[in-house]
Amino acid sequence: MTQRSIAKECADWIRHKATFKSNVTGENMGVFMTVDAPAEKVAYMPMSGFTTVDIGCERGNSSYNMINRMEAPFSTQYMQLFESLWNDKDKMQDVTDVIISNISTAYNENSPEFIYFMTLYNVFSEFLDDISEDALPNEATGFRQSKIWSMLYDFQRDAVLAIINKLEKYNGCILADSVGLGKTFTALAVIKYYENRNKTGIYVAN
Fold first, then answer.
1. Phi, psi of 84 (to 5 degrees)
2. pLDDT of residue 204
3. Disulfide-capable partner of 54 in 46, 49, 115, 138 (CB 3.0 to 4.6 Å)?
4. What is the pTM of this model?
5. How far apart are CA 39 and CA 145, in angstroms?
Protein backbone atom coordinates (compact mmCIF):
# COMPACT_ATOMS: atom_id res chain seq x y z
CA MET A 1 0.00 0.00 0.00
CA THR A 2 2.97 2.34 0.53
CA GLN A 3 4.79 1.43 -2.69
CA ARG A 4 3.62 4.48 -4.62
CA SER A 5 4.62 6.99 -1.95
CA ILE A 6 8.00 5.30 -1.39
CA ALA A 7 8.72 5.22 -5.14
CA LYS A 8 7.77 8.89 -5.52
CA GLU A 9 9.97 9.90 -2.57
CA CYS A 10 12.87 7.86 -3.97
CA ALA A 11 12.53 9.43 -7.44
CA ASP A 12 12.41 12.94 -5.95
CA TRP A 13 15.52 12.21 -3.86
CA ILE A 14 17.43 11.01 -6.92
CA ARG A 15 16.42 14.10 -8.93
CA HIS A 16 17.91 16.41 -6.32
CA LYS A 17 20.80 14.47 -4.79
CA ALA A 18 22.06 11.61 -6.97
CA THR A 19 23.60 10.93 -10.36
CA PHE A 20 23.93 7.50 -11.95
CA LYS A 21 26.32 6.56 -14.73
CA SER A 22 26.80 3.29 -16.56
CA ASN A 23 29.87 1.64 -18.04
CA VAL A 24 29.37 1.57 -21.81
CA THR A 25 32.73 0.07 -22.78
CA GLY A 26 31.99 -3.56 -22.00
CA GLU A 27 35.25 -3.65 -20.05
CA ASN A 28 35.40 -5.00 -16.52
CA MET A 29 35.88 -2.37 -13.83
CA GLY A 30 36.88 -3.24 -10.31
CA VAL A 31 34.17 -2.29 -7.82
CA PHE A 32 35.07 0.01 -4.95
CA MET A 33 33.42 2.84 -3.02
CA THR A 34 34.85 6.22 -2.07
CA VAL A 35 33.58 8.70 0.51
CA ASP A 36 34.80 12.25 -0.16
CA ALA A 37 33.77 14.28 2.87
CA PRO A 38 35.35 17.34 4.51
CA ALA A 39 36.25 15.32 7.61
CA GLU A 40 37.71 12.31 5.82
CA LYS A 41 38.49 10.79 2.43
CA VAL A 42 37.97 7.05 2.61
CA ALA A 43 37.94 4.17 0.11
CA TYR A 44 36.35 0.75 0.57
CA MET A 45 37.25 -2.32 -1.48
CA PRO A 46 36.67 -4.96 -2.76
CA MET A 47 32.91 -4.78 -3.24
CA SER A 48 30.45 -6.89 -5.22
CA GLY A 49 27.62 -4.38 -5.32
CA PHE A 50 26.03 -1.43 -3.59
CA THR A 51 23.87 -3.22 -1.01
CA THR A 52 23.91 -3.26 2.79
CA VAL A 53 25.44 -6.74 2.66
CA ASP A 54 28.07 -5.86 0.05
CA ILE A 55 29.27 -2.79 1.95
CA GLY A 56 29.47 -4.76 5.21
CA CYS A 57 26.54 -3.27 7.13
CA GLU A 58 24.61 -6.55 7.30
CA ARG A 59 25.52 -10.21 7.25
CA GLY A 60 24.73 -12.10 4.09
CA ASN A 61 24.80 -15.81 3.26
CA SER A 62 28.56 -15.89 2.61
CA SER A 63 30.87 -17.52 5.12
CA TYR A 64 32.83 -14.26 5.29
CA ASN A 65 32.79 -10.81 3.75
CA MET A 66 36.04 -8.89 4.11
CA ILE A 67 36.14 -5.24 3.05
CA ASN A 68 39.21 -3.06 3.41
CA ARG A 69 38.82 0.52 4.62
CA MET A 70 41.61 2.83 3.51
CA GLU A 71 42.14 6.38 4.63
CA ALA A 72 44.30 9.11 3.10
CA PRO A 73 46.86 9.07 1.66
CA PHE A 74 46.11 5.46 0.53
CA SER A 75 42.58 6.39 -0.51
CA THR A 76 43.81 9.23 -2.75
CA GLN A 77 44.57 6.91 -5.67
CA TYR A 78 41.05 5.51 -5.56
CA MET A 79 39.64 9.05 -5.51
CA GLN A 80 41.69 9.99 -8.55
CA LEU A 81 40.72 6.80 -10.40
CA PHE A 82 37.05 7.42 -9.69
CA GLU A 83 37.20 11.01 -10.92
CA SER A 84 39.04 9.95 -14.07
CA LEU A 85 36.42 7.31 -14.93
CA TRP A 86 33.43 9.38 -13.84
CA ASN A 87 34.33 12.27 -16.13
CA ASP A 88 35.27 10.12 -19.14
CA LYS A 89 32.30 10.47 -21.51
CA ASP A 90 33.67 7.73 -23.76
CA LYS A 91 33.41 5.21 -20.93
CA MET A 92 30.53 6.41 -18.77
CA GLN A 93 27.00 7.34 -19.78
CA ASP A 94 24.57 9.27 -17.57
CA VAL A 95 21.54 7.04 -16.91
CA THR A 96 19.92 9.03 -14.12
CA ASP A 97 16.86 9.90 -16.22
CA VAL A 98 16.40 6.24 -17.19
CA ILE A 99 16.44 5.15 -13.55
CA ILE A 100 13.99 7.88 -12.54
CA SER A 101 11.72 6.87 -15.41
CA ASN A 102 11.75 3.22 -14.31
CA ILE A 103 11.01 4.14 -10.70
CA SER A 104 8.26 6.55 -11.81
CA THR A 105 6.29 3.70 -13.37
CA ALA A 106 5.50 2.53 -9.84
CA TYR A 107 3.52 5.67 -9.02
CA ASN A 108 2.47 7.21 -12.32
CA GLU A 109 -1.21 7.12 -13.25
CA ASN A 110 -1.63 4.68 -16.15
CA SER A 111 -4.42 4.57 -18.69
CA PRO A 112 -6.94 1.70 -18.53
CA GLU A 113 -5.68 0.49 -21.90
CA PHE A 114 -2.09 0.23 -20.60
CA ILE A 115 -3.22 -1.72 -17.52
CA TYR A 116 -5.33 -4.01 -19.73
CA PHE A 117 -2.45 -4.84 -22.08
CA MET A 118 -0.01 -5.32 -19.19
CA THR A 119 -2.49 -7.71 -17.58
CA LEU A 120 -2.81 -9.69 -20.80
CA TYR A 121 0.96 -9.87 -21.15
CA ASN A 122 1.49 -11.17 -17.61
CA VAL A 123 -1.33 -13.70 -17.97
CA PHE A 124 -0.12 -15.06 -21.30
CA SER A 125 3.64 -14.35 -21.17
CA GLU A 126 4.38 -17.96 -20.20
CA PHE A 127 2.41 -19.17 -23.20
CA LEU A 128 4.28 -16.75 -25.48
CA ASP A 129 7.61 -17.99 -24.13
CA ASP A 130 6.54 -21.57 -24.84
CA ILE A 131 5.92 -20.86 -28.53
CA SER A 132 8.67 -22.07 -30.82
CA GLU A 133 8.82 -22.74 -34.56
CA ASP A 134 8.75 -26.47 -33.85
CA ALA A 135 5.42 -26.17 -32.04
CA LEU A 136 3.78 -23.56 -34.28
CA PRO A 137 1.18 -24.73 -36.81
CA ASN A 138 2.63 -25.64 -40.19
CA GLU A 139 1.31 -23.01 -42.58
CA ALA A 140 2.12 -25.23 -45.55
CA THR A 141 -0.88 -27.41 -44.72
CA GLY A 142 -3.19 -24.63 -45.93
CA PHE A 143 -5.48 -24.96 -42.92
CA ARG A 144 -6.06 -21.19 -42.91
CA GLN A 145 -7.71 -21.53 -46.33
CA SER A 146 -10.18 -24.17 -45.13
CA LYS A 147 -13.93 -23.60 -44.92
CA ILE A 148 -14.01 -24.20 -41.16
CA TRP A 149 -11.26 -21.64 -40.55
CA SER A 150 -13.20 -18.95 -42.45
CA MET A 151 -16.18 -19.55 -40.16
CA LEU A 152 -14.27 -18.92 -36.93
CA TYR A 153 -14.18 -15.74 -34.89
CA ASP A 154 -10.81 -14.28 -33.98
CA PHE A 155 -10.92 -15.66 -30.42
CA GLN A 156 -11.66 -19.13 -31.80
CA ARG A 157 -8.72 -18.88 -34.20
CA ASP A 158 -6.46 -17.92 -31.30
CA ALA A 159 -7.73 -20.97 -29.44
CA VAL A 160 -6.98 -23.23 -32.43
CA LEU A 161 -3.38 -22.02 -32.60
CA ALA A 162 -2.98 -22.42 -28.84
CA ILE A 163 -4.43 -25.95 -28.90
CA ILE A 164 -2.11 -27.02 -31.73
CA ASN A 165 0.84 -25.58 -29.82
CA LYS A 166 -0.09 -27.51 -26.67
CA LEU A 167 -0.74 -30.73 -28.60
CA GLU A 168 2.63 -30.51 -30.29
CA LYS A 169 4.45 -29.74 -27.05
CA TYR A 170 2.53 -31.72 -24.41
CA ASN A 171 0.50 -34.18 -26.51
CA GLY A 172 -2.70 -33.00 -24.87
CA CYS A 173 -4.87 -29.97 -24.21
CA ILE A 174 -8.18 -28.99 -22.55
CA LEU A 175 -10.41 -26.36 -24.16
CA ALA A 176 -12.53 -24.98 -21.32
CA ASP A 177 -14.51 -22.20 -23.04
CA SER A 178 -17.96 -21.41 -21.70
CA VAL A 179 -21.15 -22.77 -23.27
CA GLY A 180 -21.99 -21.08 -26.54
CA LEU A 181 -18.47 -19.98 -27.50
CA GLY A 182 -18.15 -22.53 -30.29
CA LYS A 183 -15.89 -25.21 -28.86
CA THR A 184 -17.14 -27.66 -31.49
CA PHE A 185 -16.07 -25.45 -34.39
CA THR A 186 -12.75 -24.77 -32.69
CA ALA A 187 -12.13 -28.50 -32.28
CA LEU A 188 -13.14 -29.18 -35.91
CA ALA A 189 -10.59 -26.60 -37.08
CA VAL A 190 -7.90 -28.42 -35.08
CA ILE A 191 -8.97 -31.73 -36.63
CA LYS A 192 -8.86 -30.14 -40.08
CA TYR A 193 -5.29 -29.03 -39.44
CA TYR A 194 -4.17 -32.56 -38.61
CA GLU A 195 -6.25 -33.96 -41.45
CA ASN A 196 -4.28 -31.76 -43.84
CA ARG A 197 -1.14 -33.30 -42.34
CA ASN A 198 -2.48 -36.77 -43.18
CA LYS A 199 -3.18 -37.59 -39.54
CA THR A 200 -6.42 -39.07 -38.25
CA GLY A 201 -8.63 -37.45 -35.64
CA ILE A 202 -11.95 -38.08 -33.97
CA TYR A 203 -14.38 -35.71 -32.31
CA VAL A 204 -16.72 -37.02 -29.60
CA ALA A 205 -19.46 -34.71 -28.22
CA ASN A 206 -21.91 -35.32 -25.41
1. -65, -45
2. 62
3. 49
4. 0.48
5. 79
